[in-house]
User: What shape does this take?
Amino acid sequence: MVGRGWNWVGARAYGYNSISYGVCFIGDYTSTLPIKTALDMVRYDFTSCAVNGGRLSSYYNLYGHRQADSTECPGNSLYREIQNWAHWESIMQVTDFTHS
Assistant: This one.
């Protein structure tokens, strides 16, 4: 996994960048999924690291990029996949991004 670090503010979804973390899978996931290793790294390792390190509330909510901005990202297949992950929320609210 490659990242810019915890203290960088992204530029992926106007209005949410400073109150959320973004994860990018590079590729076209309209009809296929990323490899299982990559999915598991984000699903389990990244979130566990963020929560255990005090960077993310254990009550975090998970959203797809298309919920915050007008985009097809993360692709239909990946979007369907993350809907089965813990913390998935179908309705996005800015108050869900409180950090404790």
